[in-house]
Amino acid sequence: MSIAEQIHEANGRFMEGIRTADAAVMPTLYTEDAQILPPNGELVNGPEAIAAFWQSFFELGIKDARPVTLEVIPMGVLAVEVGTYSLHGEDGSLLDRGKIMVVWKQEGGVWKMHRDMWNSSVPLTEPNAESV
Amino acid sequence: MSIAEQIHEANGRFMEGIRTADAAVMPTLYTEDAQILPPNGELVNGPEAIAAFWQSFFELGIKDARPVTLEVIPMGVLAVEVGTYSLHGEDGSLLDRGKIMVVWKQEGGVWKMHRDMWNSSVPLTEPNAESV
Fold this sequence. Notes:
Chain A is an alpha+beta fold and 132 residues long. The first copy, chain A, has helices at 3-19, 46-58; strands at 30-37, 44-45, 64-75, 78-88, 94-107, 110-120. The first copy, chain A, is 23% helix and 44% strand.
């Protein structure tokens, strides 16, 4: 199976974790020393913080996340995935859409997310002038 | 010079491009087939669109961008940089701060940005409910 196919499979497990709102399974999709770089939040470090991050994500009412891979750049035991995503609510309604960039790393023979970043492609309605 | 040092130098040229608001120099810091993945906007492809993107960025009143490298993951002719940034206005005022993830690629012996993504760490003041 190619790296792209293995990443596709791993994304399937990620989507299943979101659909079942299973915060406990989410850190198993990431390397031991993974980081999430979420929009409008601080860097998230390590398994416990990753589980808590996704728990708070589920509490926003997000029921479904659909990543679409545009490109996989293989680099030995690492690979960079560039793609798009959409987030959906209860009735399949579109909550957000944007872009992803993920560094994948093979750990114990399994491809896991090592650095996970995304941002929205939706224009801001207002300048975000919260105290920076 | 290590890859991290070369990326540090390239970031110096990037910062100079921002400070001098030189849209024409910006594409020279990117590979021929580079992509920018900006927050709250669509994917930006190729030199002309990259120059136009930075021109519109300058028109927002951003006078200074300060990337800080936290990590460089070398992968042969490619490297992934993870870090933070701050954006500053006329009087040095803080306009935004956030995180960066950049895929660097050596092109003609020079490290250039190949995939350039960032997002703000500042919480949204309001749910961003513009038509998605």
